[in-house]
C-alpha cells in the first residue's frame, strides 16, 4: 500500500443548497477518525479579517458594487492563503475548504457578468497554493434554490446571509454554468451529482477522497 499523502488541500464547492457544508463536516469527521490531522475552513470567513468581510459580502444590509464585491472576495482569499492555507499545509495538515475561487468564477464572473481577465489577474496575486482536489456538487437550480431559501428561513438568517439567494432562478442558472465552466478549465476538479440523499452523496465523496489520499 502506498503511504498516505500529507499536506493535502481539498475544496468542496457548489451552488447554494447543494449540501457542501454538510459534506465538509462529514468528511472532516471521517478523516479525523482514521488519524489524519484535519483543518476545516471556509471562504469567505476563514480568518479574523475574513469574518468581517463575510458579514459585508453575504448580508443584505450592504449594497456594494460588483467589482468591489470581487475585490473583497480576493482580499479574503489572500488573507486565507497567507494565514491559514499555507501555514496549515506546511505543518502537515489536510485542509478541507468550504468554497474557493471556483465560487468566485461562478458568482462574480458568470452570474454578475464581470470580466474573467480581472479575476485571472487577481488570482495571480492571491492564490499561491491551488487545491489538490476540488469536488463540485452539481444540482438542478430549482432544487438548490428551494433548499437554500428553506435553510435561510429555518435559521432566521434571510437578511444576514441571504444576499445571493434573493437574485432568483436566472441568476443561479448562471452560477451553475460558472461552476461547470470552472470544472472544464481548471485542474483537479471533479463534478458529482448532488440530487440524492446525504449518505449516498457522502459515499461517493469518500470514495473520491480515499483514492486521492491513497487510503
Low-confidence stretches: none
The secondary-structure class comes to alpha/beta
Gross morphology is: globular
Count of distinct structural domains: 1
Largest sheet: 5 strands, parallel
CATH superfamily: P-loop containing nucleotide triphosphate hydrolases
Question: Could you characterize what this model shows?
Answer:
The protein has helices at 20-33, 48-58, 66-90, 101-111, 116-126, 141-154, 158-161, 169-185, 198-213, and strands at 9-14, 38-42, 94-98, 133-138, 189-193. With 215 residues, the protein is an alpha/beta fold. The chain has a five-stranded parallel β-sheet, with helices on both faces. Helix 1 crosses helix 9 (198-213), helix 2 runs antiparallel to helix 3 and helix 4 packs across helix 8. The N and C termini lie close together (8 Å). Residues 12-205 form the Thymidylate kinase-like domain. Belongs to the thymidylate kinase family. Phosphorylation of dTMP to form dTDP in both de novo and salvage pathways of dTTP synthesis.
